[in-house]
Write a structure and sequence with these properties.
Layout: E1 5-9, H1 12-24, E2 29-33, E3 48-52, H2 60-76, E4 81-85, H3 98-109, E5 114-117, E6 125-128, E7 131-134, E8 137-138, H4 157-162, E9 169-172, H5 174-179, H6 181-193, E10 198-201, H7 206-215, E11 221-224, E12 253-258, H8 263-274, E13 279-281, H9 284-288, H10 293-304, E14 310-313, H11 318-328, H12 330-350, E15 353-359, H13 361-371, E16 375-383, E17 386-392, E18 403-409, H14 418-433
Parallel strand pairs: 1-3, 1-4, 2-3, 4-11, 5-10, 5-11, 9-10, 12-14, 12-15, 13-14, 15-18
Antiparallel strand pairs: 2-16, 6-7, 7-8, 16-17, 17-18
Helix pairs in contact: 2-3, 6-7, 10-12, 11-12, 12-13
Bound molecules: adenosine-5'-diphosphate (ADP).
């Protein structure tokens, strides 16, 4: 079993986004949380592996170091092409980390040219004449202008990348991309001969990304947002197929843990409450007062889990969150809630939950860590960018633990009914996949 594509993602939810796009284009994908320890066996049956780092805003030297460790592991696992994945808003500063990581990977791979494009037209990210648009506005006119860590005040990605890179940066513009893969290849060759080391590539449609994908076949390194993933799998003959997203059959009880405070999640919690299903609200002030809130949440869940999904949530409106932050401090409140929800998630597994939805990027990180998960097989998409995944729960010492189905939803993803539809979707997927004559004794329409 050969790993075709080895990916290095600079943050966790970005890694899932990339993995999800690759699965939809027909590859079987495993996402690893951090670089595996030496000697860890490589995943079976994976056409692509995505290693999720936290290197977007760490000091440059650390980001380079981690990325090189990821590269070494992926090459050891046989990866034929490397994909460095960053944010679709090109989040970085003149110090990095996109440029320095790209150059370190190029040096390690011994390659003198790579491409860079954060374009993802389905998510409103397009690149035209080297300028990045977020929806209808230039990057520098979007909310990213005020980002606390990586304010993006220049939309011209050629100059943004040049500021972080020693090699000259050029442009493959939309006329070349529109003309087809051969034209893009010719343009790359020209730039390479002129001494350029990298090129920003225009893309305003999925077709552009598909043409670019074909053009970079065989290039040792590509760098992009998650969009380019739609154009690469075809280079190895992969086509979209439901089998790429196949997960083991789900079992066990169902629960949701939500520590996200974003608008979409507030709507999803409200929708769940309105449906009359059981939900337990985690109050940070009671945690701070020393109450065993996790214990209370688990006692509540234990009474209701047999009847269907149970929600444990700290999700609140921005005003309520500000009030709590004013009293406890923002970082302290966040940490208290994350640790409590992580304990709840662990306790839920102890109660027999094997289908778990988690809302919130930071919350997901805390839960994944508390559960000791090291890898996720990426399954079917519930809503754009949010797939179900299967993980192995660490066993007692032997590592031959049980399967867990988990979905990690970052803040603003998912439709209003996400917390109930996620489980229906997982069950439906399973029923859809049952070959004729194998109905596990269920009546039509029943789900395990
Ligand atoms: P999102 O993806 O929506 O940004 P995250 O989990 O990444 O969600 O971040 C939400 C942060 O807010 C976390 O640190 C979480 O612990 C914290 N938090 C959650 N609920 C509350 C609350 N009620 N009061 C204060 N902070 C909260």
């Amino acid at each position: 079993m050969t790993i075709r594509l080895g990916c290095i993602a600079d943050d966790f939810t970005g890694a899932t986004d990339l993995a999800n796009n690759l699965v939809r284009a027909g590859m079987r994908v495993v996402q690893l949380i951090d670089v595996p320890a030496p000697g860890t066996p490589r995943p079976d049956d994976a056409d692509a592996v995505v290693i999720a780092l936290k290197s977007r805003t760490t000091p440059v030297a650390e980001a380079v170091d981690e990325s090189l460790r990821a590269l070494a592991w992926l090459r050891g696992a046989g990866a034929e092409q490397i994909y460095f994945k960053y944010c679709s808003t090109f989040d970085s500063t003149p110090a990095g980390n996109i440029g320095p990581v790209t150059e370190a990977l190029m040096d390690a791979l011994g390659t003198d040219f790579t491409v860079a494009t954060p374009a993802f037209p389905d998510n409103g990210r397009t690149v035209f004449k080297g300028h990045l648009f977020v929806g209808d506005v230039l990057l520098s006119d979007s909310g990213m202008r005020h980002h606390p860590l990586t304010p993006m005040t220049d939309s011209n990605l050629v100059s943004v990348l040049q500021a972080q890179t020693t090699r000259p940066v050029g442009l493959v513009d939309h006329t070349a991309v529109a003309a087809g893969a051969d034209e893009v290849r010719d343009r790359i060759e020209e730039l390479r001969k002129e001494g350029f080391g990298a090129a920003i590539v225009d893309a305003v449609s999925n077709d552009d990304l598909v043409r670019l994908g074909a053009a970079v076949k065989g290039l040792p390194l590509v760098t992009a947002g998650s969009g380019l993933a739609i154009g690469l799998p075809a280079n190895w003959g992969f086509e979209p197929t439901a089998t790429a997203a196949r997960l083991p059959p789900p079992g066990g009880l169902q629960a949701i843990v939500s520590g996200s405070v974003s608008t979409a999640t507030n709507g999803q919690v409200l929708d769940f409450l309105r449906s009359g299903r059981p939900a337990f609200s985690v109050d940070p002030l009671r945690i701070a007062a020393g109450e065993d809130v996790a214990g209370q949440a688990l006692a509540f869940a234990e009474r209701h889990l047999a009847d269907g999904p149970v929600l444990v949530y700290s999700t609140e409106t921005p005003d309520a969150v500000k009030n709590v932050q004013g009293r406890l401090g923002a970082a302290e409140a966040g940490e208290l809630v994350e640790q409590t929800l992580a304990r709840v998630a662990k306790g839920l597994i102890g109660l027999g939950v094997r289908q778990l939805a988690v809302a919130g990027g930071e919350t997901s990180g805390a839960v994944v860590q508390a559960l000791g998960l090291t890898g996720l097989r990426i399954g079917p998409q519930i809503d754009p960018g949010v797939p179900w995944c299967a993980a192995t729960l660490p066993g007692d010492g032997g590592g031959s633990g049980e399967p867990l189905h988990i979905t990690l939803k970052s803040g603003n993803f998912g439709g209003p009914g996400f917390f109930t539809e996620a489980f229906t979707r997982l069950a439906a997927e399973q029923t859809a996949e049952q070959p004729a004559g194998q109905t596990s004794g269920q009546a039509p329409g029943e789900h395990a």
